[in-house]
Design brief:
Beta-Lactamase; Helix Hairpins; nucleotide-binding; alpha+beta; four-stranded antiparallel β-sheet; ATP-binding; about 450 residues; transmembrane; Heat Shock Protein 90; five-stranded mixed β-sheet
């Protein structure tokens, strides 16, 4: 059976409280009963010993007489039957049982009170015999009779009954208090979760603009609320990137296909002669489509970039210098100065081919977005256990709104999509994934119109 979280929490809290209170109540009741019975037994023994000692003091061995009035008053006060015999068995004093029977059998309220206490038997009459000692010698026998195991009084039973009632009232009050607290706690915990569930349902239905404004005193619920907002923000950004990617891809494919269609129709209709220059233009458009297809295929590499790493230890300084030299002819076409500031003797353990791919993507981007007569610098330094590679340019830079998304797949900051800078927007995403696969980090700092700095940190 499936029940709501609030009910489940309330029931769990209540059961825990009930079990705790019952356990405490049972143990407390048993201990109180045991201790109270020990107290009654001790008091009873003290009273019996006191009357036995008193009779011994009042007994006159010369004439065998005893002060009966004093003993009668004590017997009536303590609800005892007292009988004294001399050493020959003759009864010299008897208190009588009428008042004792009346108190023990006729007082119904007392009987009911006594029956509520397990080991105290109100209907059982008990007699005990004690020696009558005088001057260190036994001069007779004392018989003491009473009702009940400990000859308890109404005050004794009333006190014990009050304790039990207090325990029952306390238990009931604790249960009521626990029920209220469990209800409040369950609501405090379940209500925010119900709201977050509704927000998740809204997100599932496509409303990615919804956000959670839940503030709770529970740390985990606040974290969950923040995570839901982060998830909504991420999904919203991904949705924006997906729509932009679809638009970009459609544009990238439609443009060369339209150009090819126009050229071929003109040649087929005899308007154009199939000259080398026109065929060359058709070939360039086909190359653009091929490049786009390669970018799409690189998606698989992006997802599996942590696989197939073939690491080896090599001189990072020397490899970077060779990579820079290989790019200088390309940069010279746009009269861009490509400079390297390389600290020597830095060795690293990584996939050599992946380093070339990382630098190829960064330098290609710098080339695309740096105008003629610009400058691109590559710096290599060592900081503690990290190799720091910086690629700086003074090109067009990146707008502040594009920086958070620059490493997302298919994201392009250049919405103009001109041929010189055109691409699928996957190069930096692959670069970030390759750097992460080696346990490194990549960051970007940029100002629109002033240039960009890409920083790669690789563990040595």
């Amino acid at each position: 059976m499936i029940i709501s979280l609030g009910k489940k929490l309330a029931i769990s809290f209540l059961l825990a409280i009930i079990m705790s209170i019952l356990t405490v109540g049972i143990i407390s009741n048993r201990m109180i009963d045991k201790r109270f019975d020990e107290y009654l037994q001790s008091e009873h023994r003290d009273r019996i010993n006191k009357i036995v000692g008193l009779i011994g003091d009042m007994y006159n061995t010369q004439n065998g007489q005893i002060i009966s009035e004093e003993i009668s008053r004590y017997a009536m006060m303590e609800n005892l039957y007292i009988e004294v015999k001399d050493d020959k068995g003759n009864v010299i004093y008897r208190s009588g049982k009428d008042y004792l029977l009346h108190k023990g059998m006729m007082n119904g309220m007392m009987k009911n009170m006594m029956r509520r206490h397990g080991n105290i038997n109100p209907g059982k009459y008990i007699e005990e015999k004690f020696p009558l000692n005088k001057d260190g010698k036994q001069s007779g026998t004392i018989i003491v009779g009473y009702f009940g195991s400990f000859n308890v009084s109404e005050q004794d039973l009333g006190f014990k009954d009050t304790l039990n009632r207090a325990l029952i009232i306390s238990t009931s009050a604790a249960l009521l208090f626990g029920l209220i607290i469990s209800f409040i706690l369950s609501k405090q915990l379940s209500n925010p979760l119900v709201k977050i569930t509704k927000i998740a349902d809204e997100m599932r239905d496509g409303n990615l603009e919804i956000r959670s404004d839940i503030k709770s005193s529970t740390l985990e619920i606040n974290h969950l609320s923040s995570s839901m907002n982060y998830l909504a923000e991420t999904l919203s950004n991904q949705e924006m990137l997906r729509k932009r990617m679809t638009s970009d891809m459609a544009h990238e494919i439609r443009t060369p296909l339209t150009t090819l269609q126009t050229y071929l129709e003109a040649m087929m209709d005899g308007i154009w002669e199939p000259t080398f220059e026109r065929l060359q233009s058709c070939y360039e458009e086909i190359q653009r489509i091929t490049k786009l297809t390669d970018d799409l295929r690189n998606l698989a590499k992006l997802e599996q970039s942590t696989l197939g790493l073939y690491k080896s230890r090599f001189d990072l300084s020397s490899d970077l210098e060779r990579i820079i030299d290989s790019f200088k002819p390309l940069f010279k076409k746009k009269n861009i100065a490509l400079k390297g500031y390389i600290s020597q003797g830095i060795e690293i353990n990584m996939d050599r081919d992946k380093l070339k791919q990382i630098m190829h993507n960064l330098l290609s981007n710098a080339y695309k977005y740096t105008g003629e007569n610009g400058t691109v610098e590559v710096l290599l330094t060592r900081e503690n256990k990290w190799a720091i590679i910086k690629v700086k340019d003074n090109g067009i830079g990146i707008s502040e709104k594009d920086i958070p998304f620059i490493f997302e797949r298919f994201y392009r900051g250049d919405v103009s999509r001109n041929r010189e800078t055109g691409g699928a927007g996957i190069g930096l995403a692959i670069t970030k994934n390759l750097v992460s696969a080696h346990g490194g980090k990549i960051e970007v700092e940029s100002q629109e119109g002033k240039g960009s700095v890409f920083t790669v940190k690789l563990p040595l």
